[in-house]
Specification:
single chain, five-stranded parallel β-sheet, five-stranded mixed β-sheet, 15 strands, about 40% helix, elongated
Amino acid sequence: MKRLPIDLQSFQRIREDGYAYVDKTDIIYEMTHKGVYQFLSRPRRFGKSVLCDTLRCYFEGRKELFEGLKIMDLETEWIQHPVIRLDMSGIAGTTRTFAGRLDNMFGDYEKQYGLVPAQRDDFGSRFKEIIMAAYNTSHQQVVVIIDEYDRPLQQTWNTPEHESTRAVYRSVLELLKPLGDYLRFVFLTGIVKFTQLSLFSSINNLSNISFDGQYATLCGITEEELHHYYDEHVQALADANNLTKEEAYLRLKQNYDGYHFSRRNMTNVYNPFSLLNALARQEFSNFWASSGASSLLPKFVPNLAEDINSYNDNFRIDRDTLETSDITTNEYGLFLYQSGYLTIKDSNDYSYTLGFPNAEVRGALYKMVLPSVITRQTNDVRTTQIYLADALEAGDIEEMFALLKAQVADVPYSNIRYAERVMHVEERYRMVITIILRALGFRVEVERMQAVGRPDIVVYVKDKVYILELKLANNGGSHAAAEQIRDRHYRDPFLTGGTQVFAIGIGMDDDGKGLIDYEQV
């Protein structure tokens, strides 16, 4: 088996050292021959940096690295262009650190071309001189690649440093339009879009290819690619977990697949970071939490804990907002899409329907907000959640209820964020319980439509299904909830295929001070 390129961003090393490489060079060739200025938005850890390095090697004419790849049937010239690559990843949240990174990167290119800057803090002039020197030295048009362009702007967003950071950036990027005759290709990657940078407005022909169908699978791994390039690794994963290969493929799909980046091309795409880690470690874990994707959520989605259930699988957003707006509009669904927490589920001419791509992402997001929802320390929450998952997997109803009761406690009553909302107390209970259960990574349906009614909560735990019906004490409590389960035959749709069905009526305090008791049907 070929080695897996975990955290490798060097195309040269991947190719020369024999790592598995998913060949997308035919798409790269088409992209680089359709317009000069292009922008691609994708979530963190989706292979953008490897793509940028592949582009660098391609434009530098490194033909030997592409032997055996699809691009060899397309490219005939292999012209060596000078490439200026600016990597903005890892920049901290101050204008000074951003300027320092630019100074270092520009300094390397100035040394290469024998330039001495007249004024070190005039980054626009320095960038122009570097581009012109590269062109005059090589007599070839220059390629500019800016990876994670939005990182400095993300880090300074909603801080006093943002405006000065934006000013420094604008002085650099504004030069790209008037220098068009000297540029072969300009490529920017990032997560979020900041249209006020001037680049997006001053370069009239900048192409945002983020939603183009032909580039929907440029980053990430498709089902077909998984089978073609990683089949032996999937077999090893299956063997390590006592699964058939088909079962292993299904588990991978449930946990890491499900991304869609174009309404014109709804091919499923796996998150490559999580997928490759699962194959390398031979286990089905939640790798999303360690990808750094959640670090900016509190800044860009300040009310996530209260609104999280509204984003579950059927969140509607205006088409223009998703495709053309930027994060400064405070459209929180837009940031959740761009950062990879939501993906396209459906669309029409006017809007998109967004939802969670897979179980891994859903569980990671709910687990992140849970401590703030139930107002307890993160370590306490994690310990209780571990035992709650064990109880659900074992079918231990008494233990399950005790642990659920301990976590709900008096949250709907004391958590000021929920108490201030215009929301029936029973709805608050349902929202909190749903967050607790989804944080475990289980599939949870709320008010699932059935022939004779809609149970409050349905939880799917391996070979078990839990049906939870909630009633306040003044509405009959647990006994009335159990009677409703019986009368409306909530269990019936699940009584097939050897599934264990647990139907439970739960009684709750009228004033929102916690769960009272339960009755199993």
